[in-house]
Amino acid sequence: EGADVKLAEFRQHFQMPNEESLVNYYSCNYVKNKIPRQGYLYLSLNHLCFYSYMLGKATKFAIRFSEIVEIKKSHHWIYVRTANDMQYRFAVIFNAEEAYRLIEHLNKLAMKQLIQDPDSPVIDQKKTSFQKASKSNSKTPVVLRELKSEEYRMFFRLPLDEILDGRVKANLWTPHNKRYYAGNIFLSNNFLCFRSDTRNLVNLVIPLKHIHSAEKKDDGPNRSENQIIITTSQNATFQFAQISDRDFLSQKISDFLAQIKTPKTTERQKYDISWSKQVALMNTFKAELTEEMIKTQEAKLKRWNNHFHDFGRGVSMYRTTDIINLIVDGIPDSVRQEIWMIFSGAIHEKEAHPGLYEDLVEKSASMSTAAHEEIERDLHRSFPEHPAFQHLDGINALRRVLQAYALRNPQVGYCQAMNIVSSVFLIFCDEENAFWLLASVCENLLPDYYNDKVVGAQIDQGVLNELISEHLPNLHSHLEDLGMIKHISLSWFLTIFLSVIPCDSTLHIIDCFFYDGAKAIFMIALKILEWNEEKLLKCREDGEAMQLLTVFLNGIYNEDYQISKKCVPKTRSQTIHTLIHEAYARFTQSISMQRIEELRNKHRRLTVHQFDADNENSIVRNFKENVYFSHEELRALLAIIREEKLNAKKYQHKSNHMGESPTLVSPTHPEVDFKAQLREPFNKVDNYKLDFDTFRVLFYELSPWKKCRSIDLAEKLFRLTDKRGIGTIGFYQFTKTLGILCSDKNIEKLKLLYILHLPPLLLKPEVEKIGKEKDSTEVGIEAEDFFSDEPSESIEALPSPTDHNFIEGSHLMNIEGTANTTPATPNLSLNSQNLRTSTFYVDLPELNTQNRFESIDTFSDISDLGKQFNVETISNISQISDVNIMKFESHFSTTSSTDTKSLSSLRVLMDHADSNLSRCSIPNMKRSHFKGLWTSLTEIVGSNDVELKRAHENLLELGESCAGMSPEESIDSFTQIALPNSSDEADSNGNTTLSPIEPASSNASSCFAALDQSKISGQSAQEDKWQITINHFIATALSVASVAESFSTRTSVRDSIELMQKNRRKCVLPTY
């Protein structure tokens, strides 16, 4: 009940959607300016929130976990810092350690989600493993259970979907030394595991599907009481005693056993391809061992067989320090495949998915993708010194493994270095086992390593850097000065040293890696640097240091084994056995997987945010056409766009979500390229495209025109700026638009405001308002003025950005100056029942005339283009990307996009807003549209003083005086845009000096001219002749002091951004 109350308070205080799940809450003090505020810390899946109400004042804020860059804990204090350098300190009296671990884990989930799916950075409980964890009756918060499950899976190398149900204290009997060891039994839906209290003393993994019986037994009041005896299908017996809650554990085991389902190979589609699984290549291509090496291998195998006899064999062997010592000494070839599969956890995935590899191989063979092309290029570069990969058997097996994995995990696909690692697996393992080992490396042991940015490897570079600073501080400072730490380690991590150390020696490193994970790589890397510390300190250049390390690594040799004589180094530096033994002796106690995970969490935050910072700095440096904002303002704009796009309240659920193991994707078409988006040329600035929702938010938060509420100027501006009509605008277009609004160039701002109220950009409410003020005949006549001579030649307007039926890309237009036979654009304003759905599409009243159409559609974006159109004029001057040039003869064909061309002409004026474009090119404005324009102006200025009212009256009189202007019968002025030789001079603000008001020239005749009398015969209604020119409007508006001051004042976008961020943190609801 208390949790439900807190959930309701959480939603109420922070305006969170129902999808945002509250994980836990803690009573705490938030300290700011040395003043503590008692309240509650709320932790949800995506936010860290705080609320306090003291002395009649509420203090609240919400921070996304994805924007946190630093988390620290000291006693009961928790310290958090965000990407914009905001700092928060919380004093959590009770459960401080739990709160800290929970914040760390939620931040980790947010960062991983951001890495795996940047377009959907919100974690959704319904699509993650949390949903499975939430089905338990445990009172522990779901995410805390998931955190414990993750640690459980990592330690015992279990599948990613395994959820820890609980643990109990117990003792385990070990037959090899006939004694009990105290520890804990861990139980999940498919495994029973044991871990001793003393680290690495004894561990055990028992798959529940192998359990034949689990019986309770009592031997009296001693160490053997409360026993459970488990017998497996392999006739192995495991004895547990001193179980703290034996009856409960026994019942749980019975319940899980009843739910166990043995995976079965399902019927799959047969493909017309002939292939057979390749056995381990070492059986065909023998290692070139000397007699002494063969004896060493036999001696090692004997020790391993003795160990199997004493400790058991297979998944459920007793895992003690003895097995660690055997692995460090090296695994014999004959058991290497078995040991690799067990300790990597690959055996569990293979058994859970029988037949999957064959299915993937055959499906991928019928596909042709970019990943396949990259695989083909790298096949012959994979371990070329080994004879197996100079033969078709090895090449074909490697191709199948890599192509199958690219299909299994399309988020990874294929990355260089995967071929090198897989080729070594194929030498010692059969083809299917090599595939599952590769899957284990990519998904569990080295997460996020093999993607387009090798993020995981860069994170571990940061971890290594910090470990060097802890253990080798003098060397760290020197390497930092040389700037080479990142250069030396990337290839070490990606190929597990295979690309820098001879393969005979690297095998022992891989043996340790499958047992200890990344910990082995870090220990060996540190030992290599420690051995070379004195020589490295003498290096004065990074190249010299790199050469020193390269020579040393190439000289590491294996005196007990050689795959091929070609692998033997010519110059020897150190044996691999000495390297591994000394690395374990020196670092195994100080470096644990828990410590590595803590450092990974820290550097994951730093790495992801550094990606964003580097990307934004690169965009700013290359942003040549910026005339409105400083570099700092551009960075602030990029940051706020990124933050707004990552706003967790915009839930966009994807098919793949964080927390799920990669699943098989079955393409419906063999030609589908799952990595097409990664392979296509990509511009960094593409990450900062804005859809209409984001644009509208930023317009009302940052623009000085946000005061205008009668008319939605945001929608008009977006439609004008969206040149290609695809529902998004680029960063350059956005800064150009916002730059005009925030600048002090009063004439250009007034010109833009005027353009936004011309008919091609009218919104539905404006059209309806105009329609109420006129009869149907008058509205119809005005609409007809925007059509060509033949109504049938008119095309529907571009869709509104708020039209949910809009199909992105459907309005992309050919910009080539050649003939285009593409059919006319479909009418996207109609649904399947021919009903209007878009706000931009308006049906006008019927006209009761003969030889005229009955209904005029799309008042929002239509114009009269006339009889001729100079294509080169528009193309050369405006370079508009959205003009669809069809086949031109003496006039447009019936597929001409007249509505688009009218908008395109307005966009020319927008593109050249800071130049002296002739205002005579801009159409005159009618009274009905002028009313909306003046309303917008007064709202932007924020007052309607006497001077402003007088200016309004003057313009009304001017409009009456211009009523007699004769219309131009040639091309509509929308399409007559030119760049005249203007003699106007600009002042220091770039504002041109206005000439006296003069009547419009013949080149600027109104697009609202009266229709030919032959077209309106029988009509008694006459069109309103009232009209003003843009010169009239600008000159009169600037004669008003309040308008001149408002439009000549520069708006600080940086201040607006800071205020917006502050309001976001405080959960202040916007008023628009």
TrEMBL record:
SMART domains, per database record: GRAM, TBC
GO molecular function term, any single one: small GTPase binding
The keyword Repeat is annotated on this UniProt entry: yes
InterPro entries tied to this protein: EF-hand-dom_pair, GRAM, PH-like_dom_sf, Rab-GAP-TBC_dom, Rab-GAP_TBC_sf, Rab_GAP_TBC_domain, TCB1D9/TCB1D9B_PH-GRAM2
GO biological process terms held by the UniProt record: system process
Keywords: GTPase activation, Repeat
Domain Rab-GAP TBC residues, every copy: 330-517
Protein name listed in UniProt: Putative ypt/rab gtpase activating protein
Species annotation: Tabanus bromius (Band-eyed brown horse fly)
